[in-house]
Amino acid sequence: MPLLNKExxxxxxxxxxxxxxxxxxxxxxxxxxxxxxxxxxxAADSFEKGxxxxxxxxxxxxxxx
Length: 65
What we know:
- By secondary structure, this protein is an all-alpha fold.
- The chain has helices spanning 6-33, 36-63.
- Helix content is 86%, strand content 0%.
- It is elongated, with a radius of gyration of 26 Å.
């Protein structure tokens, strides 16, 4: 007699996979509702502009232009 019941074990794995998939679907829907993708892109654009401004200011400070 085996120590583990293969059918019960596989059923448990299936339930775990279903729970993970359900959570991932809910997280994706929540992110879409909150428009995180657009907010992240705007933040990245703002950060890029700030870095370019800092670079320009440093260049001007060291070259005197």
